[in-house]
Amino acid sequence: MRHLSPSSWAVITVSIAAVVHLALGFSIEFSVDEAHYALYAKHLALSYFDHPPLVGWVQWPLVSLTSSEGMIRLIPELLWIISAYLVYLVTLEIHHLMQGRNAGYLTTTLPSANLCGLMAILAITVAPLPHVLAIGLLPDTLLTPLSLGLMLMALKWLCRDTFSLGDWIATGLLLGLAGLSKYTAAFTAFALMLVLLSTPKKSWIRQLGFWLAMLIALLVISPVLYWNWVNEWISFKYQLAHGSGGTWAWRRVAAFLGIQIACFGPLLIIGGFIYLKNCLHTNKLSLLALLSFFVIPFVIFASLSGGGSLPHWTTPAWFCMAPFAGIGLAKAWNMQHRLAIRILIIAQLIICILGFGFVLSGGINTAAVKSNPIADLYGWKAAGQKAAQLAIATKADGIAVQNWTLGSRAAWYASPLPVFVMDQRQDQFDLWFGQLPQGSSVILMNWSGMPFQAPVGGKHAFERCEPLDSLEIVRFGQVLSKFDFNLCRNWQDSGAAH
Q1: 472 has which bridge partners?
Q2: pTM of structure
C-alpha cells in the first residue's frame, strides 16, 4: 500500500469514513434537529419559520417512502462525499492557479497537486464535528457543497477571466440553491462577489450572463420571499433575533474560538497558517479574495458569538479553508515535518473514534441524568410510540411538550398525532398544528433530561394533570433517561398563550 497514489489514499480515506457514518446512521435515533427537518418533508411548504425549505425538500422522496433513520441519512452521507470530492477538486484548481504564468510563485517549491488534495481530505476527515453533519442532515450539510461549488466557479473565473453562458447559469443555480439551504448563504455570495471584484477588469458587469445568473438566483429563492411576504416576514425576524443572541460578552467569543479548535481540530488551522506564511504572495489579490469564502462567514460568526452561537454554523467555511490548509500541510510534509503531521492526524483520529464509541455506548451516565448529552439520542422512538398509544387509548386531542426541542422527536415518532409546544414563543409547531384549543386534553410528555413542572392552575394551564405511565431508557445496563406521561385535561385560555 506504500505505492498507492495520493488520489487513491484520498478515495480510501473518504470510503472508510463513509462506512463509519453509515454504521452510526443505522444505529441511533434522530437528533432534535434531524427530526425537525424530517418533519419539513412531512409538511411540505414553500418555506418554514426558522429556515428555508431545501433541507425538507431534498428529504421528501425518502421520507414519503420510509421512516428508517438509516435510509433517510443516506442523503447527508451523499452530500458529505460530494463535499469531500469538491474539496479535492478545489485544491487542485488552487494549485493550478498558483502555478499560473502570472502568479508570481516558484512552481518548484509547490508540492504535487494530488498530495495537496490528499492533505485537504485528511484535514476534514479527522475533524470531529463534520462527521455529525455527515450523519444528520442540517442546512449546513447542504450549504457546504454549494459553497464549495461557488468557490469552484470563482476559480474558473480567475483562471479564464471569462464565463460561458452555461457557467453563468450554473453559478445562478448554485447561488439560488445556497439561498434555499440557509440564510447565511449571503456570506458566500459576498465572497463570490469579492472574487469578481478582485480581477483587474470588471467585464462581468457588462455580460448578459451575469445578469441572467442574478435573475436565476432570484427566481430560485422566490418561494422563500413569497412565503415570508405572506407570513409577515416572520422567518427573517426570527433569524435576526436568533443571530444577535443574548447579552454580548467577550468570554463567549473566547469560548467560541476554543470550541472551534476542538470541533475542527488544529490541522486545518496549522495548514492554513503555513499556506499564508509560505505560499501566499500578497500581490496576488485574487487568492486573498478566495480566502474570503472562509474569512467572511467565520469573522461574522465569531463576532456574533459574543451573544451566543452554535459551533456547526462555521462548517461550510472550514470546508472552504480545507484546500488552502491542504496545500500548507503538503508543503510541511515535503519539508520533512512528517512526524508532527502524523501525530496530529492520529490524535484527531483518536478523538473521532472516542466520539463514535461514546455515541454508540450511550455516553457516560452519572447521578445527574442531564449531564449525559448522549442520552438525548436514545429512547424517543419508544417514548413517541407510547405517547401515541396513550393518546388513542384516552381519546386525548394530541401530545404536548414544554419546549420545542422536545417536540421534534415527539412529532416524528408519534406521527400523525398533533404535538403542541406549551411555551410562550412562536415557532414552527404553531404553523403545523396551531395552538391548543380551549378545553383540550393531551398526553403531556416530560423527559428527565429537560424536566418541567406540569402547567396546572392559573391563566394558561390545565385544570388538572394525572400521571399515566413512565418509561426508563436503558442501554448496556445503564439508565440513560426517563419519560413520564401525564393526562392533562381542560386547557384554559390557550388563545393568549403565544
Answers
A1: 482
A2: 0.92
